[in-house]
Amino acid sequence: MAVQEARQSGADPAAHEGGCTCGDCPHGAREGHRRAVAAFLVKRDEYATGRGLPAAVAHSASASRQWVSEELAQAAEAVAERGRAEGAAWLARLWQRTAAVVWAGVLVLLLVQALTAIGAGWTSARTAGLLSAVLVAGALTAASWFHRARGGALAPVIGEDNRLSTSRAVAGSWVLLVAFAVLVLVGRLAAASDHRERDALIDGLELARGAGVVTVLAVVCGIAVLVRRVVGLRVQGQRLQKVRAHRPRAADLLTDDSGRGSFADIQYVAVNAVALAFAAVRLARRPDQLPDLPWGLAVIVLVSAGTYLAGKYAEGGRPVILSVVRAREAGDLDAPIRTGDDIEIRGTGFVPAGAQGADRLARMVVRVGPVNVHVPLVPVVGGFDNPADDLLTVPVPADVEPGRVDVQVVTAAGVETNRYTIDVTE
What is the CB neighbour count within 10 angstroms for residue 423? Predict the structure, then answer.
């Protein structure tokens, strides 16, 4: 399918190249990115099967590998540029979608209240709830407009790495629920005419009534602030590698940076979703006080928050070189490392999570003595054979002087490994 898309896009040279960012244009930023990805996949698979090589480099394995790597690196950078444009255009359109979802929620609340009012009658609590929802929706819509270039209402929960932050999303959900509950009490208090009803509503704001939900709110908000600090310090200390994403995705709430499901994130979202649903039902049943979250459920949320925080402390790690050996092909004689030879750098953590794209892999550098060697991209059908997370293959440049030489890897996230000393002979 990717081959067909690339051929169709290349068949008409006058076709729109997807440079615009208007949302209604079928050849906008999203279409341009899709076509660029399809063309890159075709080129990568052609080079992997030995096709498309110029005759000037086809006779030399090292020359052809270098030429293919340079071509793929340039093509990957073009794809990355398209991806960044598509991400910016997607964020610019997101504020309208978030506003639509918010007002759709208000409409759903109105329908639920109208259906449940049949037989029971319309009450002041229903009016206060509907007005509170309108106020919250209006505030979120205004925030969406002011932050329309950064994702609308989702801007506060998008992290510095351009991914949705699980901790901020959970904290934001609790903040919205508590704000809505307080507005409901304020609306009922404003409409109350009897002093005993007013006193009962004021008592509903007492800490004894909402100690559980207040504790959970304080913990999840503290977790959101603490996780940001922990991640920032670990990145600065080169104990965690972070690569910026092209745009946030809903799956970011449940996965790590590489897109794999994360137990810490999944359990944190699941437990808090259940607790939020319970608190919302309690508020609907008792709109005269803050949701009285039982301490048993509150403790479960606290345990989940502790697990999530421990997972943030445990994730990541600095890349490490374990050994460096001379690469040997079939039929080669055993020999020491000389200039021009390929060396295998074995270790762990060379490819950070989220850096599996060709544009990220092309940024990897190996320092061999004073010389910076860009890691060549070696394509295979469906992916790349080099570089890998635990193995890099690079040539020893001719500018390296014989003797003891330090080898060091710089990953796509800018993190440096330990230095490993090798002997280079003449």
Answer: 10
Nearest of 241, 99, 245, 81 to residue 159 by alpha carbon: 245
Task: Answer yes or no: are the C-beta atoms of 112 and 133 closer than 8 Å.
Answer: no
What tokens does 351 get?
A: 């490819």
Give me the amino acid identity at 341.
Answer: D
CB 359 within 8 A of CB 406: no
The span from the CA of 32 to the CA of 421, in Å, is 46
- The pLDDT score that the predictor gives to residue 263 is 94
Helices (H), 123-206: 124-146, 166-191, 195-203
Helix, strand, coil in percent for the chain, rounding step 5: 55, 15, 30
Q: Are 39 and 4 in contact (CB under 8 A)?
A: no
* In contact, 290 and 213? CB cutoff 8 Å: yes
Residue-wise pLDDT for 122-162, tens only, equals: 777 788 888 888 999 999 888 888 888 888 888 889 988 88
Q: What is the tens place of the pLDDT at every residue in 284-337?
A: 888 878 888 899 999 999 999 999 999 998 887 889 999 999 988 766 778 888
Rounded CA-CA distance 349/66 in Å is 24
Measure the CA–CA gap between 217 and 173, rounded to whole angstroms.
Answer: 10
pTM of the model: 0.82
d(CA 6, CA 21): 21
387 cis-preceded (ω within 30 degrees of 0):
yes
**What is the pLDDT at residue 11?**
40
Paired residues of 344 in beta bridges: 325, 393
Tokens 């603490």 identify what position?
A: 226
